[in-house]
Every structure is written in C-alpha cells, then in structure tokens.
Fold this protein.
Amino acid sequence: MEEIEHLKTRLADVVHLNHAAAVLGWDQQVNMPPGGAPARAEQLATLSRLAHEKFTAEETGRLVEAAAAQVDGLDYDSDAAALVRVVKHDYELATRVPAALVAELARLTSQAHEVWAKARAEADFAAFVPMLERILDLKRQEAEALGYQERMYDALLDQYEPNMKTADVERLFDELRVELVPFVAQVFANLDAVDDSPVHKKYDIARQAEFGLKVIERIGYDMARGRQDKSVHPFTTEFSIGDVRITTRYIEDWMPSALFGSIHEAGHAMYEQGSNPAFEGTFLAGGTSLGVHESQSRLWENVIGRSRAFWGVFYGDLQKLFPEQLGDVSLEAFYKAINAVTRSLIRVEADEVTYNLHIMLRFELEKDLLEGRLPVRDLRDAWNAKMEAYLGITPPDDGRHGVLQDVHWSSGLIGYFPTYSLGNFLSVQYWNKALQDVPSIPDDIARGEFGSLLGWLRENIHRHGRKYWPAELTERVTGEPIQVGPFLRYLKEKYTDIYGL
Amino acid sequence: MEEIEHLKTRLADVVHLNHAAAVLGWDQQVNMPPGGAPARAEQLATLSRLAHEKFTAEETGRLVEAAAAQVDGLDYDSDAAALVRVVKHDYELATRVPAALVAELARLTSQAHEVWAKARAEADFAAFVPMLERILDLKRQEAEALGYQERMYDALLDQYEPNMKTADVERLFDELRVELVPFVAQVFANLDAVDDSPVHKKYDIARQAEFGLKVIERIGYDMARGRQDKSVHPFTTEFSIGDVRITTRYIEDWMPSALFGSIHEAGHAMYEQGSNPAFEGTFLAGGTSLGVHESQSRLWENVIGRSRAFWGVFYGDLQKLFPEQLGDVSLEAFYKAINAVTRSLIRVEADEVTYNLHIMLRFELEKDLLEGRLPVRDLRDAWNAKMEAYLGITPPDDGRHGVLQDVHWSSGLIGYFPTYSLGNFLSVQYWNKALQDVPSIPDDIARGEFGSLLGWLRENIHRHGRKYWPAELTERVTGEPIQVGPFLRYLKEKYTDIYGL
C-alpha cells in the first residue's frame, strides 16, 4: 500500500498545520494577553494558507488518484478505502473554490465581524444590511464554485453535513413544525407549573467549576487526554485524539449555563476522544459531520444530563456543595427547574422545547436570503414575523434579543444552523437504539455508571471517526434514516409529564 | 525598497511558523494533558521542518542577494541594512549544515534525553558515555559544516553568541579564575557570617505567586503583553513583541527560587517586549545573543533584585504577607539571607559568587571534549577534579550533584554555557553605564520607581533587537568591549560587605 502511505505522509503536514492553528486559536481565546492579537491573526492566516496550499497542490491530487487506483476493489469498510474516499471528497471541495474567493471571504467576514458586533450592541439592523448583502453575494459565488444539483443552499449545507440536501431538512422541519408549534403554545399556557427560581440563585463560581468537572469526569471525559478552561464563548477543540479540550463560561446567578454547557462540550469531546487511535494524524480522525457531533453533545446534555435518573445520582452532592441554595429544594423541584421552558428570545439560552423553533426560523430565513427570495433589507421583519408565528412573541430589539443575536451570518456561516436540529433529532434516535441494544443502560445510569452507554457510543459511532458519511452512519447504527418522530415523542412525553399537560 | 519587501514577506512565513512552534512548545510545558505528547512531537517536527525548508530554499537565497544589492550603500545603522545583514548571517548558517545532519542530531538528542534522564536519576555516568560520544561526533561534523578559522569550538559558540571567539572567552575566564577562586575560598571560610534560615521556612505557594507577580509588574514587565504560568523548568518564550510569556516554579521551603526566578525571567521578557515595534514579524525582533539576554535577566535578578535598595521598597509588603516567617527578621537579615553563599554543587541553585565557577568548569570541559583533548570516559574525573580545584568540594554523586546534573549536553547544546557568564559580566557593565548616564537611578529605585532604569535599557539595548551584534552593541552602549573587571569589583564589594571580610 505504498501510494496510501505517500498520501498519508503528505496529508500529515496538512493535519499538523491545522492542529497547530487549533492550538493557536484555543490559546487566543483562553490565555492570550491583548497585546498578542495582531501577530496572532497573522500567524493563523499563515498556517491556514500553508495548509490550504499544501492540500490543494496538484501533487496532492496526483497522490489521491494513485491511492484511489490502489484501493479500487478493496472492501468499502476498509480503513484505506475510507481514507481515500474522505480525502478525495475534501480535495474536490477545497480545489473548487478559487483561492481569491477564499481570501476575499476571509477579509470580508473579518471586517463584518466588527460591523456586526457594533450593530448588535446598538441594536441597529440597518447598519448590518450592506455587510450581509456582500457576504451573501460571495457565498452565492462560493456555492456556484462548489456546485449543486437542485438547490444553491445544498452546496453550503454539504460543507457541514455531507450529502444532506436542503429538501431533506425541509421535510424534517415540516414535520417538526406541525407538531411542535401547537405543543409549545400548550406549554406556554402552563408555564406556572414549573418554578425555575432555584437555579437563579447565586452560586459560587469556584464551586460550580469543581462540581462540573466532577460530573464530566464521571460520565467519561478523559482528563488525561483533555482539559477544561474558561472562555467567553464555550467550545471544544482537538489537537489530536489524545488532546481534546473544552471551555466553559460561568454565570453566577444562572447555574445551569456552566453545568449543562460543560456536559454539552464534554459530549463533543468524548466523540473526538473516541476515534480509532489508528486514525491519529489522518483525515479519518474526528467527527463525521456537525449534525452527528451535535447529537453527541445533546445526548449527554439533555437526554442524559437533564433526566431524573442522572440527578438521582448527582443531586445529593450538589446539595451538599450548595446547602444554602438547594437545601430545601427537592430533587423533583430541581429536575423541573433545570427543564423549565421559557418564552425564549435568545437561541443560546433556549430550553429543549423551544430550541429547534429558533433553528427552523434561521434555516428558513437563510435559505430564502441565499436563494434570493428574501432581500436582506426585509430580513428583520421576516424574523420578527416568524418569532410571532412560532413562539408567539416579538423581539423587543434587533440586537441580542433579535435578528442580530447570532454571530454565524457575519462569519459567513450559511448552512450551519440546521445541523443543531439534526443533532437533536439524531440524539434521540441513537439513544433509543442504545436502549434497545443494551437494556441495562437506564439501571446503569441510575447507579452512576455511564460506561455502558459510552461504550455503546464508542463502538457504534465514535471509533468510526469520519469513516462513514453521516447518513450512512445513522443507517448503520439505527437501520433507519434520520427522523424527527422519535425526538418529538421524547419531547412530548418528557414535557407533558413536567408540565402536567 | 521592493526587494526588501519581497524578502520580508517570505520570511514572515518563517517567523510565523517558528512562533507557532513556540506556542505549541509553551502549551506542552504549561497545559498539555499527557495524552497529547505523541501528536505534539509530530506537530512540532512538522512546523520546524516547514520553517527550515522555507528559509533554506534557494528562492530565499535569491531574495537575500537581491535585497543585499538594494541596501548596498545604505547607512550601517538603517533598519533595512541591518535586516539584510542578520538574514544573510542566519541564512548562511542554516544552509551550511546538511539537512540529514540536522535530522540525525534531532533524532539522537531526543534519544539521548531519555538516556541522560535515566542515567542522572541513577547517578550512572557510564550509562551516558556512549551517548555523549555520539553527540560529540555529530557536533564535530556540525562545526566542520558551519566552518571556523581557529578553533572548532568557535563554530558552535557563534550560534549563541555571534562573533564571539573561544579565545575571548578563555581570556575572560582566566581573569575571573585568578581573582574569584581565592575570593570564594575567603567567603567559604566565613560562611557562618550569614544565616539563610529565614528563606528556608515554609512559604504558602499562592502567596508567593501573588507577591512575585506584584514585583515583576512593578519593575516593568507588561502584563498586557505577557503572562506568567507554572512549569517544571522556568523559561521565557515569545510569540510576538506583543506576547512574551514567562513561567515560574514554586518551592514551598525555598522562597527565593520562585521570587528571583520570576524576576530573572521577567528580565528576559522585558528585553523581548522592548524591541522596536517596527521589527514585529521580522528577523530583527528579539534578543541579539544569549549573553546579552542573560545580562538583562541577571541585572534585574541580582544587581537590582538582590540589592538593599530593592528590598527597602518591597520588604514591608513581604513581611505583611508572611508575618509568621518574617515578622521578626530585620531587613538587613533578610538582605543577607537572600545573598547567602553556599558550597554549591548544583549550578541552578548556585549563588552569585560561585555561579560563574560552575560555568567556567563546564566551558573548559566541553571545549576539551569537543576538540578531542578529553575523552568522554574521563569526563567525570575531570569534573570532580575541577570542582575540588575551584570550589574545594567533591560531588557526592554523578547524578544531580555531579557531572550529569545539566540537560545541555544531552540536548546537543555545546557552546551555550559560557553565555551565562557573559551575561553576568555584561549586566554589571551595562548597570555602571546606566548609573553614569542617569545618576538618579539609585534614588528612583529606592523610591520604587524602576522606569528610569527600564527606560535606559529600552533606549540603549532593547529597542535595537538583533540590529547590532553583541560586541557592537556593548561597544555602542559602554564604549568598551565586554570585560570581567567591573563584575569582579561589584561582586567583591558586595560580598566583602555582606560577609564582613
């Protein structure tokens, strides 16, 4: 397999450059003194450019072709065939977009970030309009360069969720909308049934950190191959299978933010830590798509982390750590408080019930923007109309409560939002299948043993890395394509109980 | 100046790759979980190789030649001429050593490090002999490749102290030896005159850290362009002029270790922070040699940090922080304790008086080893004989108290040791000149104002970065070449007083 080895050697440079850039990016958000910013931007630009040059060089193309010829006839499931498949896919995408367009997008979005941050702070939608128009124009050029068969949005979506089509997402959201919108209205009519004041008391941040760390270690985040730090925006980043780090943000008077944020990031991190060690330094390490990645974080955060069984294990410890805040709060009251639904205006603060409506709204708007059915100047009104239709509320401002709240569009991330919901749908499908395969999981979790669930995830999902495309993986794991039904049933059952509907 | 700009652009990639490697190296020692080690070694090897390839490519040589033609006739002091001078020097050195030899040295020293660490732990000199023989063999090949006129050692010394010759160092050490050896004997005969027990009490590490940080900020280490972390071996590293970081190691029952270690590293860091901002991203940023670098760290650590005037400023605060340990220790007793001389066996723990004897010994041995006058198998005996001759003591073991104590030789660092002493000599020369230029400095320091000294260092040394070779810089600053006399006078005066000789 000489050709494969040549290809691997060449691509190891690309992987190392990208991982070096990831270290610099992590450091920038976790440690860097302010004076380091200008040079760091230059360093990151150089690393990205060198990685891109190395990867898109004709020599890489020749090695890919030679390796492809060599794996021809090999079993689809072999690592060698999978590696060539993945590299060929990435190479084609990377070489289709002209370097000049990549550079222009990088420049524009860096500029746009400043404009967006100011516009958001001042809740001044009009100030952001010309910027978003220019971004959409470049993203349309990018989509044309990438190519698509039916929908321009397909080309962008494919970058985050390979092979997923716009029409597939529309079908899933259509099914979600028809059941979820009336259910949300029903919950909203009964909001008084849950008191979330216990989680809004003051919780000492050092103790929050201590407890959160204990929880994520207990569920299986391997600290010998990871670490947790503080940052303004929580994220997971990997420098190798043996070094996958998470960050958390602490809010004194809203304890669930850090706690469930940590469990969420640990879910992402455990996926990365679970790649087959033989994939280290190759394109096969890591998650196969953003949707599958989000399924892991949401499974641990919500399906497990916000369950009664989970808190049956941990609540005593939490009460001991915060006797003043929780001494007289029952387990049941705490369980309800951490699952409280609110008339949420802000996506990142939204509960499990309303969260996907926020995503659906963004998906509908961004594809209309991209495909030219919605002029940017009408975006704010369209946003507010959908907020009213789906959630029955109108944002009080266009800034952090409204159309400017998310960073994504200013960063050129179009086609990214739906993967959050795909992850939510998949989390329940995978969970159901795990229960079917390993019926002891609920009892294990009730005893504080998370190994049987993590073992199932490792075996069925994590170890494969990028070996299978997301739809293939879901078929292999569950025998079915992605579906919204299981998620809806899970949600309705859980919240009908909590809200006594 | 188009050619210069082309050269700068190409070299910016090299600088960015090297700085990225520095970030990865810092992270490895400060943050990295153990699982990250294997991949990190690969990443660092890739970054170094890409930087080396880019720098030594023929295209760089062509750009250097074109730029050299362009600056021909420009003033020697112009930044453009200096840049070409420095790059040409580095390019020639980098292209002289064959890539195969560089790789072999990297492989061997990585192996040697393990062998050395084990031999040191087991105080087993014989186990390290074959390794050191192979290293010396490769270093001789390296010296031949680099080229030299008189002495093989010149070629290696030049890498750390450009243009300095072995004969120059020998002359300095000859002068030092004749005066220092008898003086040390004199101090040793009076060791009872100083009680160092106050600094060997237990000092809470968090408070040590708090106080140390206050001190280094006060003397001028800019925390908006730096930060301090913990690591096993203290070091300074720079990712840009705007991001220069230090690390410190804390020992509970030997407080001076962290305190003076922090001031020492801050001295290095202030030199890096003081480069002309116009040099950012070019080969002109940073220190001009290890010797000049060490002059800055030792000036702050010893000449300033271990002076009566300095503790007149800080001692009250330190006593308040550690009332139990220092409440009944007078300023004078504390001043003596932090300057206590010991029959030191270990270089890194040595006091100001004996330190340079340790360096002289290593310099004499390593040039004899390299130039073939001392067989490796006889090194231990030669070491012990010199310890007896210079310090009047024989090491009780060959491990951490003896010939295997330092990491340098196992890392292939031959020619590096003398720069520690050059730094000590220069620190006093620069200090004397600063006092002559700005007579208010002692009064300023007594009032806790360090700006006049730092300003003088910035103006005369720091801002120039690598613009002048070390000997040129010293001539420019002091009007003289490097000398050992001022250092000897400073030492004798200080310690005659402390020990009441």
Observations:
- Residues 2-160 of chain A form one domain.
- The first strand of chain A starts at residue 228 and ends at 230.
- The interface with chain B takes residues 12-13, 16-17, 19-21, 23-24, 27, 31-40, 42-43, 46-47, 50, 222-227, 239-243, 280-281 of chain A (CB under 8 Å).
- The mean pLDDT of chain A is 96.
